Amino acid sequence: MKILKMLKTLLINRRNLLLLVALIITASMSYASEAQSVYSYGRFQPGSTVYLFGDNVNMREKPATKAPIVRLLSIGSRLTIVGEPDGDYKANGFSSGWYRVQFLDQQKPVEGYVWGGLLAFGAVQFAGADKELLLLAGITKFAENRPAGELRVVENSKVKAKTPFTWIVTDMNEGDNYSYSVAAEELSWAGVADLKNVFQISCNYEACGYTRGKLLFFWDGNNLFCGPTAESVSEAGLFSVESEYVFPGQEGCKSNELILRTTSIEEPAEDGTTPGTAKKVEILHVWNGKDWVAKAPVETELPAPVRESASSGDSEGN
Predict the structure, then answer these.
(1) 285 and 176 share a domain?
(2) 155 with 281, same domain?
(3) Last residue in a domain, options 169, 199, 233
(4) Interval 245-286: pLDDT, tens
(5) In terms of domains, do 246 and 193 share one?
(6) How many domains does the chain fold into?
C-alpha cells in the first residue's frame, strides 16, 4: 500500500515521472555494505574505526619515530582514532600526521601513536564470504603531486592479493598530503559469476575545478581486477563533466558488460559569442574472463544548453 501511495504521488505530473524513473534506476543497484568514510579532506576522523594498511607497524608512546614502542601491530589490525592528528612525518614522498589510536589486545584497550600513512583510507569487510576477508586501500608513495595507491585483500593478517591503482586527484599544488575524502563500499553484483565481489571507492573534493569520481575493483576469489574509472568535474557557469556506471541488468546491459557513461556540458558564453554544447559518450567494457576490455567510444550529441536572458521586467522600476 505504501508503494502504491508513493507512485500516485510521483505520477502527478510529467516532471515527477522523470523523478520516478531516476529513483528506479538508482534502486536497481543496491549495496551489500554501506559506504564507510573515515578519511575526510586529508585526515582521519576522531572516533572512527580504521584498519592498518601496513604490516608489522610500531605503535609508539609519542608521535615520533624514535619514541618507545608500545605494541607491534599486523596488517588489518582494527583501531579506533582517539583524537586529531599530531605533528607530521614524511615517508615515500607522502606526508601525514600521527594519530593516537586504541587497539583491543585480548579485550584490554591499549593506546599509542601510529603514523597516518600506515592506515587504510578505505576498508571493507567482505559480505557473504566463507572466510574473514578484508579489503584495504592505501597510499604506497607520493610523487609529482600524485598519490600511488594499492588495494590489498587480507585474511588473518596475511595479504592474499593486491593490485596497484591511481587515486583520483587534482594537482592544485597543495603539498604531498592526499586532501580528498574517501568512502569505500561493496556493491551487490548481478553480473558474471566469475566475479564474486565488487567494490567501489569514491574520491571526493567538493569544490569547483576539482576532479572527483569512483574506482571499481573486482574479486574472483583469488585475484583483484581494476574496472574503469568514473571521473567528474565541474566549474559553475562554465562546464560540467559527469561520469556514471551502467551495471549488468540495467538498461539491457548483459552479465559480462559494463558501461561507462560520461555526459559533458559546455555552457554558452554570457555575451552570446560562443554557443553551448552537450554530448554523451558511452564506452562499453566486456569481461573476457581475465580483464575488462574497452570497446570504441560511442558519442551522441545532446540538446545544447541555452543561457537564459534576463527578462525585461527584471529591470523595471530600478
Answers:
(1) no
(2) no
(3) 233
(4) 999 999 999 999 999 999 999 999 888 788 999 999 999 999
(5) no
(6) 2
User: How far is Cα 44 from Cα 134, in angstroms, rounded to an integer?
Assistant: 19
pLDDT in tens, 96-154: 999 999 999 878 999 999 999 999 999 999 987 777 899 999 999 998 888 999 999 99
In a domain, 318, yes or no: no
Q: Of 183, 214, 233, which residue sits at a domain end?
A: 233
CA-closest candidate to residue 222, choices 300, 290, 176: 290
Q: Which domain holds residue 160?
A: 30-233
Same domain, 87 and 182: yes
Do 282 and 166 fall within a single domain?
no
Cell for 203? 574520491
Do residues 102 and 80 lie in contact, with contact meaning Cβ atoms separated by under 8 Å? yes
